[in-house]
Design a protein that fits this description.
By secondary structure, the protein is of the alpha+beta class. Helices cover 29% and strands 29% of the residues. The chain folds into 3 domains: 88 residues, Rossmann fold; 65 residues, Dna Ligase, domain 1, CATH 3.30.1490; 187 residues, ATP-grasp fold, B domain (D-amino Acid Aminotransferase, Chain A, domain 1, 2-Layer Sandwich). It contains 11 helices and 19 strands. Strands 9, 10, 11, 12, 13, 14, 15, 17 and 18 form a 9-stranded antiparallel β-sheet that branches. Strands 3-2-1-4 form a 4-stranded parallel β-sheet, sandwiched between helices. It binds adenosine-5'-triphosphate, glycinamide ribonucleotide and magnesium ion (MG). Adenosine-5'-triphosphate (ATP) binds next to strand 6, strand 12 and strand 14. The site of adenosine-5'-triphosphate (ATP) has 20 residues, from strand 6, strand 12 and strand 14. InterPro entries: ATP-grasp (IPR011761), ATP-grasp_carboxylate-amine (IPR003135), ATP_grasp_subdomain_1 (IPR013815), PreATP-grasp_dom_sf (IPR016185), PurT (IPR005862), PurT/PurK_preATP-grasp (IPR054350), PurT_C (IPR048740), Rudment_hybrid_motif (IPR011054). Pfam families: ATP-grasp, PurT_C, RS_preATP-grasp-like.
């Protein structure tokens, strides 16, 4: 493999569509291999903008605007980093010969819950909880009654819990209907899911480099309001549950195809494993790999994209805790207690230019035996605050 320098006529270029905290780590890893990096997002000074060679601010849902940047920059690899972006632009770019990671069809399927759920459950036959799709409030009530309360309601296009709610009875339906409008993406259709009473849930990071598929240790996580708050690795699983999880991850990622890392989200009850959803890119709960693995999920993503070998060492157990702002601010300051800077813990501050309530601004990482690491991350996260 040959590695050119950036900003030359023969440079290899990587374009990130979405430039948040996950993209920032991908850009850093890309630069470590001499790649030229271009970061695109809908607002100025997004985390990856701050480290990339060039950056663009554009309406990510505008086909022409995205295509214009792609045609101008001619990247060797286009890495979608957020769900809410113009899929038409990606389909067209692929048609023109650009390499969309993992491929435009996989991005199309995974960005929309209806597409990915029907693909997983109906085409591939993977086990999921019962679900229905609705477009009206009356339809929502009907579906919830048929599935049985409680139900989880989510816009077909959204992420990080935006627009998501749990309805426990009929009286919650009007609120859930209103809440869905908070979607980051498309709320014209909703998925209504029976509540899966799982023992625990995991993300199984799965990397494909065109030659082999490699799994990371399973990542356990805790979610609040549809968004991750703590994650730890490895999640203790029975051998049978782990085998089932890897089988599902292999089937869904083979089904989607292409190269890169995927975050396969699964619910586990006993030895039974239910498919939930999958990100065709690094996963927020996978930030824990920044402290547990010789090659983080971001480094593995790049290796997979470039077709490089996927070998890495699992250094040992760890945990991560997301810090979310409690204020709205145009000049956010994250105050971190010195006790976070120890031999086995540290913090990464994302440098987001604006804070609002609930926005993730930093992550605390702890390296320790998994229970202690999680316990410690619960203590440490209380020592991070908005200044
Ligand atoms: N059917 C369900 N039964 C029980 N819990 C659920 C169900 N669907 C979702 N959840 C809970 O809500 C969380 C978020 O749901 P989901 O992953 O579908 O949304 P998301 O907005 O895509 O989140 P992210 O972007 O952070 O992955 C899940 O990790 C799980 O904890
Ligand atoms: N669950 C998806 C996820 O974690 N995505 C990550 O959050 C950023 C958006 O953050 P913002 O909402 O603070 O701009 C995205 O750009 C990505 O890095
Ligand atoms: Mg999810």
């Amino acid at each position: 493999m040959k590695f050119a320098a950036p900003l030359k006529s023969n440079s290899k270029k990587v374009m990130l569509l979405g430039s948040g905290e996950l993209g920032r780590e991908v850009v850093i890893e890309a630069q470590r291999l001499g790649l030229e990096t271009i970061a695109v997002d809908k607002y100025e000074n997004a985390p990856a903008h701050q480290v990339a060679h060039r950056s663009y601010v554009v309406n990510m849902q505008n086909k022409d605007a995205i295509l214009e940047i792609i045609r101008r920059e001619k990247p060797d690899f286009i890495l979608p980093e957020v769900e809410a972006l113009s899929i038409e632009a990606l389909l067209e770019a692929e048609k023109e010969g650009f390499n969309v990671i993992p491929n435009a069809d996989a991005v199309n399927k995974t960005m929309n819950r209806k597409n990915i759920r029907t693909f997983a459950a109906e085409d591939l036959g993977l086990k999921t909880g019962p679900y229905k799709f609705v477009t009206t409030q009356e339809g929502l009530l009907e579906a919830a009654k048929e599935l049985g309360f409680p139900v989880v309601i989510k816009p077909v296009m959204s992420s990080s819990g935006h627009g998501q709610s749990v309805a426990r009875s009929e009286s919650d339906i009007p609120h859930s209907w209103e809440e869905a409008k908070e979607a980051r993406g498309d709320a014209s259709e909703l998925i209504v899911e029976a509540f899966v009473d799982f023992d625990y849930e995991i993300t199984l990071l799965t990397a494909r480099n065109g030659k082999e598929t490699v799994f990371c240790e399973p990542i356990g996580h805790e979610q609040r309001d549809g968004d991750y708050v703590f994650s730890w690795q490895p999640m203790q699983m029975t051998p049978k549950a782990l085998q089932n999880a890897q089988d599902i991850a292999k089937r869904i990622t083979d089904g989607l195809g292409g190269q890169g890392i995927f975050g396969v989200e699964l619910f586990v009850k006993g030895d039974e494993v239910y498919f939930s959803e999958v990100s065709p890119r690094p996963h927020d709960t996978g930030m824990v790999t920044l402290i547990t693995q010789s090659q983080s999920e971001f480094a593995l993503h790049l290796r997979a994209v470039l077709g490089l070998p996927l070998g890495f060492t699992f250094y040992g157990d760890g945990a991560s805790a997301a810090f979310k702002s409690e204020v709205d601010s145009y000049a956010p300051v994250v105050e971190v207690d010195e006790s976070l800077f120890t031999d086995n813990s540290y913090v990464r501050v994302f440098g987001k230019p604006e804070a609002h309530k609930g926005r993730r601004l930093a992550v605390a990482l702890v390296f320790d035996k998994v229970e202690r690491a999680l316990e410690k991350s619960r203590e440490l996260i209380k020592k991070i605050r908005d200044a």
